[in-house]
Predict the structure.
Amino acid sequence: MKIAIFSDTHCGFKYGEERGEDAFIAMEEAMNKSLDCDLILIAGDMFDGKVPKPEVYARTAKILSKAQNAHSNAKLVSADKEVSLTALRGIPIVTIHGTHERRAKTMINPLHSLESSGLLIHLDMNTAVFDINGQKVAIHGFSGVSEKYAKETLDKWDPKPVPGANNIFMFHQSVDPYIYSPLDPPTIKLNELPKGFNLYILGHIHWSDIQDLNGGKFLLTGSTTPTSIHKKEVEQPKYIFKYDGSNIDKIKLEKQRKVIIEEFEFEAGIKEKIYNLLSAIPAEDPKQIVVIKIKGTLPKDCTPPNFREIEERFKDKFILIINKNIEEQGLENQLELFKNLKDNRLSPEEQGLRILEKQLSEMKCGINPNEIFDLLVEGNSDMIFNLLTGKQRTLA
Ligand SMILES: [Mn+2]
């Protein structure tokens, strides 16, 4: 058997901007390199947003549809959900949704839409069993849930390996020690994952890793494209992976921009230092992404430095990202909300969810904030009002 695995393609990331094509280029390369496999597994965050633009949706769908014209030896044996025959044409694609696509349970997310279009199988606490050349493979998919509820949701589902099959557990969460944001701590630990699986596949974290776990393998896929750029992911290439039932092969993605991260302490003459560094790096095609991180404290009564000139001067040579993390003296106690957003890059949605959680718990309200938050975001406030006032008892 040959199973292709990748994750976090983030289609739609910076769509319409200079880096807007990168996610599609990487996903197309990942897909082309997967076309000699029997199954393709995508571990979440295929899209960068919950409601992708029709342009983004169409381009992603077109890339996925390549699998339907390729050959596969995989035959569906059973599934605990309805699977359309169309999704089984060519190489079946099995996915879960990630943090970026997650919407309230009662809503349609973009993976549901792709499944309705017959392009893939979307697992949300579901298991699909395939036969590949007489060998059984069971894919158990745990789509992304809010970190706070991950452990209790997983315990409740309690997936069990299918006897006689090669069992793959695919999920998209922070798992101790693989943590995306310290502000959003995981409730699942690596050594507490359900036992008895041959392969554990984790998306979500954008750098990759492979280790032994529970007598099988653990694969952290990493992303196919950099979004918010972590130092760790810059140190390694981007990959897709191929699993033969026991071993994992790494296949490097070639069509990547080079990413350079340089850190500076805020001090006199900093602009000149940055200017000299940027002048010394030779230009490349495609343009490199250069991330300049500036740390330090700005003396009182000193105007914050302006890097517009530098950005303007090098905009044709690099994609330049200047992160100014300079604190002004006396302003250390910045608003917590602002600081959290800035330092941890929590989306406004995650931040909003946190506020709602806090308010509901102060009200001693038993409603799961995670379930109603997306309804609120979508403007479904009447239903929420009725729920909170007791006029309505269930979400349906
Ligand atoms: Mn992601």
Q: What stands out?
A: Residues 330-334 have pLDDT under 50 and may be disordered. The chain has eleven helices and 18 strands. The first strand starts at residue 3 and ends at 6.
